């Protein structure tokens, strides 16, 4: 008998996902009503599926597997209502196989099939840094940045490193989305929060970066590069005191390729690297911010490799930085970061994490890292 088709308008919001056995062609996901009913073959029913479910199915094999595993976990009780407790290993295995877009579809599917919010379930049963990593993984990329920036200005003390890291490394479009979502989420602008929580030239640099107005072209004007390099020299090394505005206006607005040329010319003029001049002419958060801009222009993965190294070296761990970089860069340039880390420090990122962290926290970070080098 031909498999039944789903009606165009689903009569029930709640449906149960289940696999119909491997079969010759691999596993097939079916849908059935809570109180029984015909199992629907997706190959027949797909045209009638809701858009959110169709998008989830299009997320690929890992998405299908995640749906099956999450339903299985629920049947065994994901939470500690079961005497077995929370299956952290299963949670790690399921979620680290997905990208952030697929995880958003998992949230939709979990709620529609089980009737509970997966984030709430995870928060109620996980704790500490492990919970922070898992919840971070389940958060859309832009909203993760938004939440981290909000924590940086409204948490216990200002996290200047977080503000610098995000604002110095994101593209104009990423900054635009951050500003838009920040305003929607908190009913105030990111710029206003930066202004209220920081001061002096450091504040001005952050506000400049937060406008997302950097030239992102590729054109290099040699004459302007010579002029900019000379201006930086005259604003710092050549004079008593420092014209910090000149540094800000050049470093925070010019395109990457132009700045790389400026840095080369600057070395010829000053007989030292621009980073050495920044270190000798600036101090504190302003120094850190301008150094971050230069490092991101030169080699963004190397900048993040350094951030990770500093978060783990010595006594204690800067978990805020470690978690943020691992979560936010895992799908963007983690392989490049791993390569730079090994080159810069002679030891793999994987082995560093393995030696610095423990338990489920270590397990999930190692999964995000992706492997030993």
UniProtKB/TrEMBL annotation:
It is a peripheral membrane protein. GO terms for cellular component: calcium channel complex; nucleus; plasma membrane; zymogen granule membrane. Its main location: membrane. SUPFAM superfamilies: Annexin. One of its GO terms (biological process) is calcium ion homeostasis. Keywords: Acetylation, Annexin, Calcium, Calcium/phospholipid-binding, Cytoplasmic vesicle, Membrane, Phosphoprotein, Repeat. It is found in: Zymogen granule membrane. InterPro entries: Annexin, Annexin_repeat, Annexin_repeat_CS, Annexin_sf, ANX4. It holds the Pfam family Annexin. One of its GO terms (molecular function) is calcium ion binding. Belongs to the annexin family. A pair of annexin repeats may form one binding site for calcium and phospholipid. This is Annexin.
């Amino acid at each position: 008998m031909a498999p039944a088709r789903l009606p165009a308008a689903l009569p029930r919001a709640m449906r149960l996902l289940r696999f119909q056995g491997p079969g010759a062609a691999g596993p097939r996901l079916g849908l059935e009503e809570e109180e029984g009913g015909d199992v629907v073959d997706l190959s027949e029913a797909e045209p009638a599926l809701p858009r959110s479910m169709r998008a989830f199915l299009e997320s690929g094999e890992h998405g299908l597997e995640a749906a099956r595993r999450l339903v299985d976990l629920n049947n065994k009780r994901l939470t500690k209502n079961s005497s077995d407790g929370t299956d952290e290993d299963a949670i790690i295995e399921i979620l680290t196989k997905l990208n952030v877009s697929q995880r958003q579809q998992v949230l939709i599917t979990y709620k529609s099939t089980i009737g509970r919010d997966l984030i709430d379930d995870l928060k109620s049963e996980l704790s500490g840094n492990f919970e922070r990593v898992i919840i971070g993984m389940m958060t859309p990329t832009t909203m993760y940045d938004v939440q981290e920036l909000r924590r940086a200005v409204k948490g216990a003390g200002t996290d200047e490193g977080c503000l610098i890291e995000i604002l110095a490394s994101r593209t104009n479009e990423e900054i635009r989305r951050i500003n838009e979502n920040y305003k929607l989420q908190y009913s105030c602008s990111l710029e206003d929060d930066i202004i209220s929580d920081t001061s002096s030239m450091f504040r001005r640099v952050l506000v400049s970066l937060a406008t997302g107005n950097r030239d992102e072209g590729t054109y290099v004007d040699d004459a302007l590069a010579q002029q900019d390099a000379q201006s930086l020299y005259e604003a710092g090394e050549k004079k008593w005191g420092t014209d910090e505005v000149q540094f800000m206006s050049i470093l925070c607005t010019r395109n990457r390729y132009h700045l790389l040329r400026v840095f080369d010319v600057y070395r010829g003029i000053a007989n030292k690297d621009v980073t050495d001049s920044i270190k000798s002419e600036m101090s504190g958060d302003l120094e850190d911010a301008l150094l971050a801009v230069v490092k991101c222009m030169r080699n963004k993965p190397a900048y993040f490799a350094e951030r990770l190294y500093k978060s783990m070296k010595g006594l204690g761990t800067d978990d805020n930085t470690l978690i943020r970089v691992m979560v936010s860069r895992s799908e963007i340039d983690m392989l490049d970061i791993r390569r730079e880390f090994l080159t810069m420090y002679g030891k793999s990122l994987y082995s560093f994490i393995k030696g610095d962290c423990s338990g489920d926290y270590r397990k999930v970070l190692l999964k995000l890292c992706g492997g030993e080098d």
